[in-house]
Amino acid sequence: MKNTVVFGGTKGIGLAIAQRMTAHGQVLVAGRSAPAVAGAYRYAVCDVRDPRQVRQVLDNACQQFATVDLVVNSAGYGHCLALDEISDEAWVEMNRVTVDGNFFIAKHGYEVFKRQKSGHFIIIGSMASGGGWRMEIGYGTLKGAQAKFAMHLNDQFIWDRNHDVGDFHCHVVCPGSVSTDFWKAIPQRTVSAEESLVPDDIARATEVLFQHPTWGWQELAEHAKRPHQLIAALPPFTAQPYIIRISHDAHP
Ligand SMILES: NC(=O)c1ccc[n+]([C@@H]2O[C@H](COP(=O)([O-])OP(=O)(O)OC[C@H]3O[C@@H](n4cnc5c(N)ncnc54)[C@H](OP(=O)(O)O)[C@@H]3O)[C@@H](O)[C@H]2O)c1
Questions:
Q1: Mean pLDDT of the 100-112 span
Q2: Which of 70, 93, 128, 240 is most solvent-facing, going by the fewest CB within 10 Å?
Q3: Which domains does the chain have, with CATH numbers?
Q4: Complete DSSP assignment for 111-148
């Protein structure tokens, strides 16, 4: 039995990951609203902006499950706004969910992993964290912070392996467009279904990385790429094989 906690698991990509991971063990999904689709998972209310709620979810998972083997952070939302269009409040709010929330999940997840001497953390990042586009100066910058966070975290994990603290892994799965409610809140941009993945594309990649925690983008592309997918390194993070672009091959 390999058990999973998915923050932002009530909808979209996170929910698809939760559905796949029920084949491997018990699953707890956490979010502010109830899961959009009923399934063989448990649900806990959690706003990732609040470290006490994040910790409570992980404590609950430890009480209910023998181990917590995978922690996924899929909590997030987007906007496509230029610098003079983003209010101070919108920046602060996105920072709280994207950067603070990711920190709280990793920090309290790591406490659990250290007790077990093993664990895997997968962040659902974004292709927007690479490159530069004036409309992603807010969202893209803060998703980029998740990727940079993972670089420091993976260095910690190497240190931990070398000092017998435990066997820990971290990946950042960076989707291109995926057909979810995410886009409903972004009227500034229309995304066609022809260039979008479906949530299970990201869920399948997440499941495979969990099964093969040492794999990077090359192994994932070689062994688990679906025909319509592009799986690749994500500039400027090309030296980090665990930061992985997954998009529809028609995605610009
Ligand atoms: N869809 C895309 O094209 C796309 C592309 C690149 C990256 N991404 C990334 O993929 C992740 C998932 O997005 P999605 O497409 O699956 O969107 P979605 O269907 O809107 O799902 C977003 C999830 O995040 C949760 N969430 C948002 N704010 C939260 C908070 N403060 N506390 C706890 N949970 C919170 C939502 O749960 P509640 O509403 O229940 O709180 C929901 O479960 C995001 O990080 C997004 O940046 C998406």
A1: 98
A2: 93
A3: 4-248 (3.40.50.720)
A4: HHHHHHTEEEEEEE--GGGSS--TTBTTHHHHHHHHHH
